[in-house]
Please model this.
Amino acid sequence: MTKKKNIWKAFKFTNDDKSALDYLNEQKTNLCTITKGILKLEIEAVDSYLDTDPPKMVVIYKVFLIAPKLGDYRVKLFTVIEYYDKGRFPVDMFSHLDNDKIENIKEDSFIDKVSEILFTKQIVKSKIQELYKLSTDK
Model:
């Protein structure tokens, strides 16, 4: 009779490092709470690569604003790119509403850069406020 062997013991399944996704998930909860669910964030994580020479393996986090009362209308706000060869940080961000790219964002300034995209770019701020207003109009 063969003894059962757990091949997964060699892996470390604890994680002390926070990723961009961890920080974004915190903001997801905060938005839902402050708007009482009128607006929500959805974060789509995709394992991919950039078609560069040589190709770069990345994780892409797409951040959508969702208006449930408007048939789950979605607006892609920004994308975060995490590079395998760099680890969790630094990351790059791309704002979809104004086509702005912010590169080499370190962990200690990540949330500040997210805030910059959401609150200092008029086109983004206006879209968020517009969706909230449309969702609360009777």
In short: The longest strand covers residues 56-67. The two ends are 70 Å apart (CA to CA). Strands lie at 40-50, 56-67, 73-83, 91-95, 100-105. The CA atoms of residues 3 and 9 lie 15 Å apart.
